[in-house]
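We store chain and fold; thus.
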Amino acid sequence: MLLNGRRLPPSDFGAFVDVSVLPLSVIDRIDIQTDGASAVYGSDAVAGVVNFITSKDYEGIDAFARYGAVTNGSLREQQAGLTAGRNWTSGGGLVSFEYTDKNPLFASERDYIEVTTVNPNGSLSSDERRYSAALSLHQGITDRLTLSADVLHSNRDALRAQNTGRQFTIKTTQSNWYGTTRLDYTISDQLNAGLYVDYGETYLTSRADDDDFEEESQRANQLLVVEGKTSGSILDVWGGRLGFALGLLYRKEEYEAGRDGTVSQVAQREVKSAYGELLIPIVGEKNAFQGVQAFDISLAGRYEEYDDFGDNFAPKIGLHWRINDSFALRGTYSESYRAPLLIQLNGPIQIVGLVRPVSQLTVVSTPPQDPRLEDGFFSYVFTAGANPDLVPESADVWTSGFEFQPESLEGLNVEGTYFHIDYADRIERLNPFEVVGNPAYLSFLELNPDTETLSELVASAEFLTNLLPFELTDDNIQVLGYTGFRNVSKRLIKGVDLSVSYDWKTTKGDFTASVDGTYLLDYEAKITDVSAPQEQVSTVYRPVDLKLRSALSWSFEGFSVYAAVNYVDGYTDNLSGVSDNAIEKWTTMDLMLSYDSGGRIASPWLSDSKISLGVQNLFDRDPPFVDTADGLNFDSTNATPLGRFVTLRINKSF
């Protein structure tokens, strides 16, 4: 995830960027690049990037209040925010604040969840308090030189009760800081240069406790980026001006972890990069001919040197062929390389011990029975968290697509993209409940591990969660699962994205109809070098083959209605051991009603106001039932337990 094209520091364990730290009121638009973007944004942008663009010329004050609640359960959410901006002759700025107060949804509030296995007081969402603030400034120093700065801060307090086993709560406090300074210099009408300095850090304290123990840990992530680049157009070629960009970048990442205020783990990485991009217009307005209105070639390459994993070069080539005003074709090829995250290599290791039913251990012909447990149960210990033996992953990415906007039917837009991503050594977080039921993961299980092996693992773990009625160092632990972060030998992902939209105007309002969908042709994994490839599309905890969202909207004199239908195709329960055990398709509907008064109402309190009423999952459809090993009985990859969620939002501009 990027903010105005810049990296943000990762959150929590460092494996993701927390989108919720952004005050959404300052977001002007979201740009999504779905093809390989490693040559442009860095080698870890394998499947593209999401770029949040903030407003730069905001004028005035906007306040909002929002209330949301599920119609079945205790989840409630209150949110309020204020954004103010002003522009002057040589610059401008804005400031924004948001506050969110949310209480949780409990496992006992969903009747499809097996409360005999799951802690009924466990939470499906966090009890949370969060505030965020953003400041953005840009100031012209001279006619050619502009100074810009963005500062972002957020803080979150969250409490979550574990779903599995006895009452076990985790309280976290997370603080995020991010700042970027940018100097832009206009060399000429067609040439620009820029210097960027970004710094961000996240700090998280986590306290885990139950009736028997209490542990507190700390984690910190830091990111420093210094980048200089120049871009523009330099000369005329066959179809127009040759565009280019060149840059040098230095990036430093650091991760720290410890307990009770004492740092016990420190890891850092330095990355040096050089990159270049070319846009070569072969055919343009001056030399177009029948069937080739325009034809462009884009070339990009990025060299990166990691101080811990060596160097890599990521190339990209793209073609764009506009046949006429209505139709265009495009295609790209790129290569990517991603070193493991610092947290994946050096972070804390967690050991968990659970009692599980023998019926869930379907990967062995004769499941073991633990004599210390009731009949039909075995003792299961698994690892989670970091893995110092990870190796970098790489990928070859192909895309091809078309764009169709027929002149004969103004307002119709059709786009389609075929994607093909071939991963090697893909880093994935193995699900401890999946590996006991999927034969492809058998190599990650050890039956009847010896006491020495288990003792060494327990000694190396930062977090120990033992829900067994005996010590983990005892003999006769039936199954040991090596889960958490692991390299999967090969993964092949192929599919098609399709988007169709049609806008039309009438005397009774403006209408838009759209359909967006993804159809996965393959989600194939070769778990180890010696295992056979396994097709995993439309299986539990993996993407389904077909997802669709269709929408229809109408707006007229400030009133608007938006309705959308979401469809997740049915798929196969590959973990139950029952052949042809189908998981039902899932169809939900969302609805939004709003009125924007604009200048239609004379009252100063009612003018320039907007009220919106929204409903997610209008008919309160439960997620499809899946007999999961954790007892939650839904697939968290493809469904949510939220249910019907109603929101009311009021905006007022001054």
